[in-house]
Amino acid sequence: MAGARRDEDGVAGTHGTGFAVDFHLRGSLEEEVEFFEELVVVAVGGLAGGHAGFGQALFFDGGVGAVEDTADGRAVLRGEGALIFELLDYHRGEDMRFFEGCTALITGASSGLGEEFARQLAPVAEKLVLVARRGEHLDALKADLETRHTNVRVFVYVMDLTRENQTRDFVEWLEREKIRINFLVNNAGMGDRGPFATGDWTKIHDMLELNIVALTRLTHHLLPMLLEGGRGAVLNVSSIAGLIPLPHMSVYAATKAYVNSFSDGLRMELRDTGISVTAVLPGPVETEFGQVASRGTGEPEWKTPDDLTLPAAEVVRSALSAVAADKARVIPGWKLVLLMGIAVALPLGILRAVLQRKAR
Prior knowledge:
The chain is α/β, with parallel strands linked by helices.
């Protein structure tokens, strides 16, 4: 793996709330500009007057200035309230060169974002270690990747990350196989939608174990290996849910708030070690996550607009670009960046009232 790039403050390309601004134009330019004007020029104008907001946005005199896409350099906004999009080359190849020859461990690799991480890393990685509970899915993915990419060796390991003894056995297996991980992707996680009072405790407990305990335990076990190598990266898959309280997803949001805080703290601890830590905070993604999280009981659930849902490939591209650029955090999808920037800028009392009303 190539060395990571850092700003002097160790939070490359971030400012204010610490988001890396990541624009992905999905409709026509006219449609996106119209949406942007309605959302930002009107809604954010009231937050002007020297307030440092999300990403590198600076609000002043009722306008938006100097918003630069720090995640992949595709779009730039300039001017006092004027919106000027510059479509720049997407230097995907440069980003992926950072991962050349890496040995990556991906949890939750049997489907969704985990599978997509494996597919995007396979062309440049030397080794991939894929971990999940569904062995048949991992075997099929291994066969497909090794057929398509002769450069990569793919290892599969079937385990339940919530079982401490299985984690210990896994780390011992890595040592026996002489597999030295230098890129850890903590992707495994689960959700639960619905009122907390009527939730199934077993599912809630499993969510706490997987989203918090298993992620922390695996990182703790593997960090000495990364430090010994002197260069590497940790990518934690979090969620925008970790930035705000969410009724009907209260426990899930709390677990992701932990991941956000843990990632930031660990990043600061490892600042001068050659190991970077990045958190990717997706919104809704086209995976099976929603099916697993839904209870299917007709109870109230948190709903998200389809227009905010991103394909897994786009989320993974943003995440890997952020790791290559040594970003602390990235929110894939520019609409979500703007919405979350507004949300975290609101007084907590107002935010609670808005979310409570939406949850009804």
